[in-house]
Amino acid sequence: MAGESSSKSNTGTNIKLPCTGSPSTGSPSTGISRRDILKTLAIGAAGGSVLQVIPAEAAEYIHHLVRTEKGTTAAAKYTPKYFPAHQYATLIFLCDAIIPKDDHSSGAVEGGAPEFIDLLTSENEKFQLRLGGGLFWLDGVSGDRYGKTFLECTPQQKTEILDLIAYRKNAIKDPTLSQGVAFFALLRNMTCDAFYTSKIGIADLQYIGNTSLREFPGCPALPHES
C-alpha cells in the first residue's frame, strides 16, 4: 500500500515480561495471568507503535499467544477478542493492503498482524477508541461516498479512500479526513511492528543474528587494497 513510511524510534522505555511458568496460563506462584501480561503490554503500547516502547521479545510473546490459541491444525482459527466480525474482516483487508504478499515473501496477514493487533486492542481502551472508531469512520465515509460499507466497495473505490487517508498532508487540505488519517497512521505502524516481529517478517528482513561464528574474519579489504 503506497503511503508515508513509518519511522521507528527508541524511547528508552523498557517493559519486562513477568516471569511466568507457562505463557498461556501464567505462573501460579506469582498469580500473574496471561491477561495481566497483555494489559502490561497494551498499556506500554499506548504511546503508538509497539516497538517504540516494547522490546521485540514482548512482541514475540504476543505472537506466541496467538500461535498457542490457533494450535497446530490447519483448520484452527483465531477468535477475535475485541473486534466484531465485520470490523475484523476490514482489519484483515487493511493489513493485507499495507503489507501484501508478493513473490519474495508472505504478507502481514500471513505474519499474524490482524491477530496481534486485535489481542493488544482487547486490553487497551485507547486502541479501542482509535482503531474501533477508525474502522467505524471508514464505513461511514464509504457510505457517504458510495452508499455501502468499505468492504462492499469496488477495488477502485477502496483505493480512492485509502489514498486519501494514507498521507497526512491530505488532512491539512481537508480536516474532515483527520480521523481517518490518524487511524491509518496508527494501523500502519502496528501492522509493520506485528509483521516484522513475526517469523515471516524476520525472515523477510534476512536477519541472521543470534548465530554463533567459529571465527571473526573482520571487514573485507577495500577495493583498492585487494
In short:
With 226 residues, the chain is mainly α. 50% of the residues lie in helices and 0% in strands.
What is the element layout, followed by pairings?
Elements: H1 34-44, H2 56-70, H3 85-98, H4 113-121, H5 125-146, H6 155-165, H7 169-173, H8 178-196, H9 199-205
Helix pairs in contact: 2-4, 4-8, 5-8
How would you characterize the overall build of this protein?
- The structure is a single chain.
- The chain is an all-alpha fold and 226 residues long.
- The chain has one domain (34-73, 81-206).
- 50% of the residues lie in helices and 0% in strands.
- It has nine helices and no strands.
- The chain starts with 33 loop residues before the first helix and ends in a 21-residue tail after the last helix.
What letter string, H or E per element, gives the SSE order? HHHHHHHHH
What is the molecular shape? Answer: globular
What's the alpha carbon Rg, rounded to whole Å?
Answer: 20 Å
- Unreliable spans: 5-32, 46-50
* Major sheet attributes: none
Mean pLDDT: 77
DSSP strand content: under 5%
Q: What's the number of helices?
A: 9
* Strand runs, count: 0
Q: How many angstroms separate the termini? A: 43 Å
List the quaternary state of the chains: single chain
Q: Specify the helix fraction band.
A: 40-55%
Structural class: mainly alpha
